[in-house]
Amino acid sequence: MSNSTREPAYRAFTVIKREGQDDFWLPIGAAFAHQSGDGLNLILQALPIAGPDGVCKVVLRPPKDDQQQEGGSPSGERERSSRKSGQQRR
Fold first, then answer.
1. Burial (CB count <10 Å: 0-12, 13-18, 19+), residue 59
2. Number of Cβ within a 10 Å radius of residue 70
3. Is 72 in contact with 79 (CB distance < 8 Å)?
4. Cβ-contact 58, 26 below 8 angstroms
C-alpha cells in the first residue's frame, strides 16, 4: 500500500517564532508508520530553515481534525492565547 492511500501517524510542522506574536505552526509534511510497525517514513513537502539560534527543528504531532487548516497551532494554543489577551488574529 502506498503512503498516499494511508492516514499519517503524525503531521510534521516547523514552528516559526515571531516577536510580539504567537508562534506560527507551519505544516511541512507527514510521517507514516511502516507496514511492519517498526519505524516511520517522514515525507516532507518543504524543509525548515534554521532560526536565529541556528536550530532547525521538525515537530511531529498526531493528526487532529482541527489541524486541517494551515498555520496556527495544531493544539489550539493560538486560539486560546488570542482569546485570553483579547487580541484578534488577522
1. middle
2. 9
3. yes
4. no
HEC-encoded secondary structure of 21-49: CCCEEEEEEEEEECCCCCCEEEEECCCCC
**Beta-carbon-side half-sphere exposure of residue 56 (alpha carbons within 13 Å):** 6
Whose cell is 498555520? That residue is 71
What is the 8-class DSSP label of residue 88? P
Mean pLDDT of the chain: 78
Contact 27, 11 (CB under 8 A): yes
* pTM tops 0.70, yes or no: no
